Amino acid sequence: MYRKTFYATHPGSVEGASNEELRDRYLIPGLFADGEIRLNYLHYERFVIGGAAPAAAGGPLSLPTQQAPASAAGKPFLERRELGVVNVGAGAGVVTVDGYAYELAPKDGLYVPMGSVEVSFESAGGASPARFYLASTPAHARFEAVRVSLEKAVPLELGSRETSNERTVYQYVVPAVCESSQLLLGLTLLKPGSVWNTCPPHLHDRRSEVYFYFDLKEGQRVMHFMGQPDRMRHLVLAGEEAVVSPPWSIHMGAGTSSYGFIWAMGGENLDYTDMQVLDICQLK
Q1: 125-139: per-residue pLDDT in tens?
Q2: Would the pLDDT of 71 be above 80?
Q3: Average pLDDT over residues 5-14
Q4: CA distance 45 to 162
Q5: Which of these, 7, 31, 60, 187, has the minimum number of CB atoms within 10 Å of its CB?
Q6: CA 51, CA 64: separation in Å to the nearest integer?
Q7: Mean pLDDT of all residues in 141-157
Q8: Residue 86, by phi and psi: left (phi above 0), alpha (psi -120 to 50) or beta?
Q9: Rounded to an integer, what distance in angstroms lies between the CA atom of residue 234 and that of residue 257?
């Protein structure tokens, strides 16, 4: 069921780690394959991160049932989970939740509540298929399913042209838009000429976070920075790759061209502003 399991790490594990070891522990590549749903299990907040890539003219892909442990085998994937979905493809798609169809244009999102039994993903037709990014966390209560477009999301304007980090943070799964147990999710789009995201960086001890970079032109890359503020490391990411940010790690990046990214958080609270913002001069 899961392509890979990512285990939680101590901050000391970064010291002396090779580049390949960092990529193995924190980078989530290969999220999309035509005609497949791919899922990865993280021991950070028990996240599941994945992608669904239904063919443009093919049938729907269904979220699998649980396979392990044996006591959970065959039970719905969302029996005790909630799910955030964002269409990061070039074409429109449809997510069907227990018989109700939600049409998602590119960059539209959907919150799928705990207890949903049958969830499927389908492209709406045409030459360009949909591609659905998936982020799931454990849940303790069932709320309403909510479709979120860019127009419905809570926008937050940050940064400036002078510092090359002018951007709009679109908050999709936040209390002001829809209820959730612990999942927070949104999409950030950089303005033309800006390359830095989440700059200056921050920490949040009470939550783990996953970044997913997309809309990155072929041949371009994002330099993703991580680690403790005084012991920084970096990873080079291609488009449609995700990276894990443990609670002890800063997270920010700079691209060689324009791009967008989806942030997903899970943890103790639903306060988006609960973070320790760092001065860029603190980084070493």
Answers
A1: 777 899 999 999 999
A2: no
A3: 93
A4: 36
A5: 7
A6: 12
A7: 96
A8: beta
A9: 18
Both tokens of 94, joined, read 């449809």
Q: pLDDT for 268-280, tens place per residue?
A: 988 888 889 898 8
What is the enclosing helix (H) or strand (E) of 140? none
Q: Of 41, 46, 59, 34, nearest to 207 (Cα)?
A: 46
Cα–Cα distance list, 262 to 32, 150, 225 (Å): 15, 13, 16
Q: How many whole angstroms separate alpha carbon 9 and alpha carbon 157?
A: 33
Q: Are 45 and 266 in contact (CB under 8 A)?
A: yes
Look up residue 216 and give its two tokens. Answer: 């990155």
Strand 132-138 vs strand 81-87: parallel, antiparallel, or unpaired? antiparallel
Q: Quick check: 21 and 99 in contact, CB under 8 A? A: no
Question: 181 and 141 in contact (C-beta within 8 Å)?
Answer: yes
Q: Can you say how many angstroms the Cα of residue 193 is from the centroid of all Cα atoms in its chain?
A: 24
pTM assigned to the model: 0.95
Strand order across the 119-123 sheet: 61-62, 119-123, 93-97, 100-104
In 3-state terms, what secondary structure has residue 12?
helix
DSSP 74-139: TS-TTTTEEEEEEE-SSS-EEEEETTEEEEE-TT-EEEE-TT---EEEEE-SSSS---EEEEEEE-
Taking only the tens place, the pLDDT of each residue in 201-233 is 999 999 999 999 999 999 999 999 999 999 999
103's CB contacts (< 8 A; 6+ apart) are 92, 93, 94, 124
Give the C-alpha separation, 242 to 237, whole Å: 8
Residue 1 and residue 39 in contact, taking contact as beta carbons nearer than 8 Å = yes
Cα 264 → chain centroid? 5
